[in-house]
Amino acid sequence: MEKGDSNAVLKARKGARADPFLFGEEFVVRVLGSSHGKSVGVEIEGCPAGVAASAAEIQEQLDRRRPGQSPLTSGRKEEDAVEIESGIKGGKTTGGKIACSVKNKDALPEHYGNLRTTPRPGHADYPSMVKYGAAEPGGGFFSGRMTVAFVIAGAIAKKYLLQKGVRTQAFAKSIGKVEIGREVSEEEIVKNTYSNPVRTAATESVQGMVSEVERARDEGDSVGGVVECRITGLAPGIGQPMFGSIESAIAKAAFGIPAAKGIEFGSGFAGSALRGSQNNDEFAIREGKVVTRTNNSGGILGGLTNGMPVVFRIAFKPTSSIFKPQQSVDLKTMRETTLRIAGRHDPCIAIRAVPVVENMAAFVIADVLLAHERRKKGGKT
Known about the structure:
With 381 residues, the chain is an alpha+beta fold. Helix 2 (55-65) packs across helix 4, helix 2 packs across helix 9 (349-376) and helix 7 (246-254) packs antiparallel against helix 9. The radius of gyration is 21 Å and the shape is globular. The protein has helices spanning 3-16, 55-65, 125-132, 147-163, 186-192, 206-218, 246-254, 276-279, 349-376; strands spanning 22-23, 28-33, 39-45, 82-86, 88-89, 92-93, 98-103, 167-175, 178-179, 225-232, 260-265, 283-286, 289-292, 300-301, 304-305, 310-316, 326-330, 335-339. The N and C termini lie close together (8 Å). The protein has a five-stranded antiparallel β-sheet with strand order 1-2-3-7-4, with helices on both faces. A five-stranded antiparallel β-sheet has the order 9-8-10-16-11. Strands 5-6 form a two-stranded antiparallel ribbon. Strand 8 (167-175) and strand 9 (178-179) form a beta hairpin.
């Protein structure tokens, strides 16, 4: 890394403490744009040089979250074609700042004219009107469209992690009231997740999940879901205690995803109903390595990795934009009113959140690993 690039990372790291659109210490991600602006983009500081990352590989990840691909997702038609502006040449990272963007081509602001003074229930409209004086069409930077930046950053981070033998994989654990009732294998996640419209790893749950979404959509309503993510290949002892924990890093980025309302690791909330003798992961030796017989800790103890897969789940609320009449208020007249929403909206945002979570995990872990390596070297980048 050149001295100038090192200084840029240090500057970005300091900025991340105050800038709500920045994440990371070493692999620093800055989210740019808005839902109905010209584009959504991302800048990345601190990615090492020589990481194989082509436009085609980034595009593959973007295509997984792109809207308009099935009746179960938003009808908004976006190509989401990535444009690499800097930091990648000849299919490899240069070590300098990476800048990428995706143009917004199918925004329809006319669908939001009646919302300028009437906040949508479940959306950030009202508090953002109070804070900023107005709410942007489509939610602006509060929109799920901002996750385009998460996916681009994660696609590049995935290629860095591949060099380290680390992999992130996500799938829909539940949609509405339909939940996978068993543990799914790594092979099932790889084989099944992107071969069905609800992005789940258990083939026997597909039809039930599809029906949940279809019923809600046909009634002008929406459903939520839970996305599970697994991170494999991490050595034990990575991370920091307390506020520097692996959980803290993942949770901070996770709640940058619009509609994310809860997170759990390992046995999570269900573990609170167990006895210690049931929830503790007993140790064993397998092929000369220390492992645990179960993974209720989700691969993390004391904020540090223990060598087992890191497992977490994010709960996504039902999409707030629904077509049923809802009660709101007109902030101009200060009268209660009935609101009817137009536009194109996902009946279940959790479906397209699967690749977002998977790529979010990738850029978080890339940052954690680079910070770990820096500390091992005594603070020298």
